[in-house]
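Structural biology now treats backbone shape like a language. To illustrate, our science desk offers a sequence and the tokens encoding its fold:
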Amino acid sequence: MSSKDEKNLTQVIEKISKMNEPQRSVMHRVHKIIVTADPTLKPRIWYGMPAYARSASTPALVTLRNDERMNLSITEKPAFRPAGGVDGGLMPSAWYFENVDDVTEKRIAEIIRSVAD
């Protein structure tokens, strides 16, 4: 890991650590899910939010927000695929959550891997 990557990781961990509980614990868990699902993604701060990109100098692919609700979002940078089925041509790009159970953890990992494709 380069020193820039280490600095960025530290900034993301610090940003998450400043959140109030229970969001802090949930966001730490989501961070771990993301970096485990795709170890090539590099944590960084993007517009003040924890985010994950291919490198320290490329746009973020995924962001985490903690406003009224916690949110996992795919930015406009990765290739989107229409959802199909009842959602037709809609392309899912954001998911709100209040906690993370095993089912949600699995889905977050799937989302992250789909961004990496």
